[in-house]
Amino acid sequence: MMGRTLYDKIWDDHVVATRADGTALIFIDRHLIHEVTTPQAFEGLRVAGRRVRRPDLTLAVPDHNVPTNNRFAAIADPESAEQVRLLEANCRDFGIEHIAMNAAEQGIVHVIGPEQGFTLPGVTMVCGDSHTATHGAFGALAFGIGTSEVEHVFATQTLLLRKSANMRVTVDGALGFSVSAKDVALAIIGAIGTGGGTGHVIEYAGDVVRYLSMEGRMTLCNMAIESGARAGLVAPDEKTFDYVKGRPRAPTGADWDAALHWWRTLPGDADARFDREVVLRGDEIAPLVTWGTSPEDVAPITGVVPSLESFEAHKRAAVEKSLAYMGLTPGMRLEDVAVENIFIGSCTNSRIEDLRAAAAVAKGRRVASNVRQALVVPGSGLVKRQAEAEGLDTIFIEAGFDWREPGCSMCLGMNPDKVPAGERCASTSNRNFVGRQGPGARTHLLSPAMAAAAAVTGRLTDVRQLVTA
Ligand SMILES: CC(C)[C@H](C(=O)O)[C@@H](O)C(=O)O
Ligand code: SF4
Q1: Nearest residue CA, atom 6 of ligand 1?
Q2: What is the pLDDT of residue 363?
Q3: Structural domain spans, the chain
Q4: CA distances from 4 to 1, 22, 28, 197 (A)
Q5: Dihedrals φ, ψ of 97, to 5°?
């Protein structure tokens, strides 16, 4: 038998039935849900007179619409308030565990899954949310689904799927000083483009990926979707198992031993074949920022806004449009771009290590006077509590940052945290699309350390000038 990849193994383990047309019915081990993509799915169940088949494999949390301040006041926007209310009511009606907005464990769905030990190696995991790829960091096959599929999983705990192709992205060598998982994620998308992973599940491999912490691997897998991939994966190893062990929903006792035994068999076989291979060198990755309205529009912070001529002819019109939206001109030094807003948060970069990296830069410095909002939004209540125990909140507050409650916040304009039209934001999130952080907002994606550097200088800045090795 030919060697199998990690993806092949998880897939094979979950096939319930195969059909003549090449699709397969796949069992879903874990279903995360949030308030945005579930109301219609629950309604569909009601109309059909169905129950949720496996409420015990389902976990709910509100995140997109929750305000990150004034948590105990009513949510001002009626639509947001209704979505959050509906999630709770539907979970009560259908017997699903719901982490309430003001619970200590609340947070962004992709932060709380791993934190709670709900995310495990080898499982299939879905959520009505594109950044479900994050959980692939544990060697779980995790991907986003649409609302009608959410209903299908509710009703049957399965999905009808067509298998993707196998792709491997290897990042060899080591990362330079102040270069983080976010820079690796951006470098990969810059190299392969937003369509580079289409039709594939990407396994991230190589020394750089092995060396990354679980937090870093989550950042990397989080952005798999921005390269068009169905999912991102990292083979589980001892670091993975150490992270999972002792989490509230992780297996214990004999179950743990059995799980560990199985998890160790998951990494791909040495002779497994990938349909596509891409190799990057870690030492060639600099701290990166985006200059355009697509996550593939990346450049080293030491660089300039690219010229139209540097693109293939068919791309130039789009680049021109994107630069006009961003208010940038070719040849402009990226370090000369002033920013009025800073966002440190999102399911890409709101975990404890992200906050530590940002705090290390912010410590003893002040947010620049041209910066009007500098938000630090922990990914969950538990991250917030940990950060406070370490005194990170004090560092941020003394530097002039705004220390908030957990949620999606300024990552997208579904709650009160928005970037005003025409203003720029140095943001640790994953999407710089037109209007993503508010109508007319201009987003520059970067790492937490780079966002903190931008906050204290008031412009995009090479963090390596502020911190020494
Ligand atoms: C609102 C939700 C469905 C959406 C997603 O699917 O990703 C959001 O989380 C995002 O990041 O754009
Ligand atoms: S933090 Fe941003 S990317 Fe992540 S789930 Fe929320 S809105 Fe989507």
Answers
A1: 129
A2: 98
A3: 6-276, 287-465
A4: 9, 18, 21, 19
A5: -70, 130
Write down the H helix ranges in 116-194.
147-156, 181-192
Classified as helix, coil or strand, 179 is coil
Distance 348 CA to ligand 2 centre (A): 8
Residue range 187-216: mean pLDDT, rounded: 98
Q: Is the pLDDT of residue 469 over 70?
A: no
Is residue 63 over pLDDT 90? yes
Dihedral (Cα; 350, 353, 357, 360), 10-degree rounding:
120
Closest C-alpha among 29, 2, 3, 30 to residue 16 = 29
Alpha-carbon 335 to chain mean position: 26
What CA–CA distance (Å, rounded) separates 139 from 123? 8
Around 157, how many Cα atoms within 13 Å sit in the side-chain half-sphere? 14
- Superfamily of segment(s) 6-276: Aconitase, domain 3 (3.30.499.10)
C-alpha of residue 265 to centroid of ligand 1, in Å = 33
Task: Give the amino acid at 76.
Answer: A
- Indicate if the alpha-carbon torsion angle 137, 142, 147, 153 is positive or negative: negative
Task: With cut-offs at 50, 70 and 90, classify the pLDDT of residue 440.
Answer: very high
Q: Find tokens 């960091």 and name the residue.
A: 137
What is the spatial distance between Cα 197 and Cα 209, in angstroms, rounded to a whole number?
18
Q: How far apart are CA 77 and CA 81, in angstroms?
A: 6
* Topology match between the domains 6-276 and 287-465: yes
pLDDT in tens, 152-188: 999 999 999 999 999 999 999 999 999 999 999 999 9
- Taking every pair of Cα atoms in the chain, the longest distance, rounded to a whole number of angstroms, is 64
- How does DSSP assign 355-424, residue by residue? HHHHHHHHTT----TT--EEEE--SBHHHHHHHHHTTHHHHHHHHT-EE--SSSGGGSSSSS--PPTT-E
Place of tokens 């201009």: 442
Q: Which residues are annotated as a binding site for [4Fe-4S] cluster?
A: 347, 408, 411
Length of the chain: 469
Whether 443 lines ligand 2, by a CB cut-off of 6 Å, is: no
What type of residue is 282? G
Q: How far is CA 98 from CA 55, 87, 103, 305, in A?
A: 11, 8, 10, 46
**Ligand sitting nearest the alpha carbon of 127:** 1
**Superfamily covering domain 287-465:** Aconitase, domain 3 (3.30.499.10)
At 319, list the tokens: 């680049």
Q: Hey, which residues does 16 pair with through a beta bridge? A: none
Specify the residue with its C-alpha closest to ligand 1, atom 8: 129
How far is 240 from 225, CA to CA, in rounded Å? 21
The identity of residue 137, as a single letter, is: A
- Collapse the DSSP code of 391 into the 3-class scheme (helix H, G, I; strand E, B; otherwise coil) and give the result: coil
Report the SS3 class of residue 328: coil
Nearest-atom index, ligand 1, CA of 144: 6
